[in-house]
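Quick note —
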Amino acid sequence: MPDLYLAMNHILSKPDFGNFIMGTLGQDNVPEYVSHQFLALISRRPNTIPPLKLDFVILMACSKLASTLTDAYQNPGVARYADVLHMMEKGINPACEDSLLAWYPPEAQIHLDRPTVVRDKFSIIIFWYLPSTIDLPIQNDMAAATAKIKGTPGCINLSPKWFLQGHPAPEFHPHVSATLKEFDGWSFSQAMYRLVALVTTALRVMHPKLYWSSLATKLALGLWAADKKLDEMGDHLREWASVFTTLTIMCNQCSLLHHDPLSHPQWFDIMTTFGNYGIASVKMPNLGIEIAYLAGCMVARSGQIIRHGLDMANSDRTAWVWYMKDDVHELMDIPRAGYSEYWSLTNAL
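Predicted structure written out below.
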C-alpha cells in the first residue's frame, strides 16, 4: 500500500482536490459511517452515531447495509477454484472449463439464499452475497434513472471516462461514453445518487484497498481533465459520484457462463438488480454455488476468478453492474489494489 499512499498524498496536495472529493464522498461521508458501524457490530461495541444530515431513506439503507454485511462476514464459506486460470480465459469453452473443474472440483453444490462471504483456503475473499440489501425506495430510484435512458431490453454502457475500442492508453486519452453524452447526465446522476452511495459504501467495507485505489484514480482523472481543459469530462466526473469507472445496465438479458478477462482477479464487480420478476439465479459452477438473484440483491465478486452466468428474465428485470476499467487506472499511474483478505479486513477499515 505505500505506493498508493504516495499517490493519494500527491493528489491531496492539488488545489482543485476539494471539487472532486465532495462529489464522490458527499458532505456526510456515508462510507466512513457504515464502515464504523460494521466494525461496531462485528466487535459488539455501541452503535456509531450517523451523520446528522443523512436523509431518512439513506439512513435506513445504511443501517440495513451494515447489518447485512455483518451477517455475511459472520457466515463465511470456503471454496476451491482454479488458481491457474489463464489471464485472458473467457470461460465459454466447455472443454477447457470441464478440465478445470476436474482438477479443482467444488466440494459441494450449494444454493445460497442468506448473506454470505466466500473465501479461498488462503482467506482471500472472492465473493460477497447480500440479498434484500436495496430497499424499495432506492429500487424506484434505479427504475426512474433507467427510464431516462432506455426502457426496452438491451445492454447500455455508461462511463464518464473510458477508452474507445482500438484506442488504448497511452497513445489516446479517455472519453465520456456516447450514451452518457446523449441525455441529461446531471439528472441521471441525481436519480442514482442514493444507490451510488450504497454501492460505494459497500465497497468501502468489502474491499477497502480497491475503494481507496479507485477513489484515487477518479480524483487524479478529474485533476487531469482540468489540466487538459477537457471541460465536458470534468463536468461528468463531478456528476458521477461512484468510485467505479463504468456502469452497465442490462434490461431483461441473460448472461452465458463466462469469466471477465479484462478485469483483475483481486478486483470486485458489484451487481445490483430491481424489477418485477420471478425466481432468478446466478450460477457459479467453478465454486459449486448458485444464488437466488431477487430484486434488491447486491453481489460483489471477482469476475475473473469466478465463472458466472445469469438466467434469462421471465418478465421485467434490470441489472446494474458496476466495474473498473484498468486502462484508466494505468493512465493515472495509480497502483492496483491487492486482494481483500478475510482476517485482515477489520484492521483495514
